[in-house]
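In this supplementary section we document a worked example of the pipeline. Step one takes a protein sequence of length 123 as its only input; no multiple sequence alignment statistics are reported here. Step two produces a three-dimensional model, which step three serialises into structure tokens for compact storage. The input and output of this example are shown verbatim.
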Amino acid sequence: MHRASLLIVTALVESITGLLLLLVPALAVALLLGASSPAPETLLVSRIAGAALLAIGVDCWMARNDHGRAAQLGLLVGVLIYDLAAAALLAYGGLILNMYGVALWPAVILHAALAVWCLACIY
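The serialised model returned by step three reads:
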């Protein structure tokens, strides 16, 4: 599998999501979890998550051509952990907490697919 392609896709997906969470967190929360009026605390934590996702996106973009380096492998392992956790937590929100928005299950599938792609690139 091509690591550069995975890192480019991850950079785009996470940067766009990060910007959405930073700029209009209520929309992102509504799309993912169906919350129509999130609490101010939720919006603040969403913005912090957005900043983290933007940082992941920038990291992936910067490392896309760093072929065969230990730093790129470390980044891929970190992205794998993130994608597994994101898929599991979003699925938990939908299945156990009965939170769902129109983007919830597509996001679960996307993160699960990216995790599989990460594994293929690592091994």
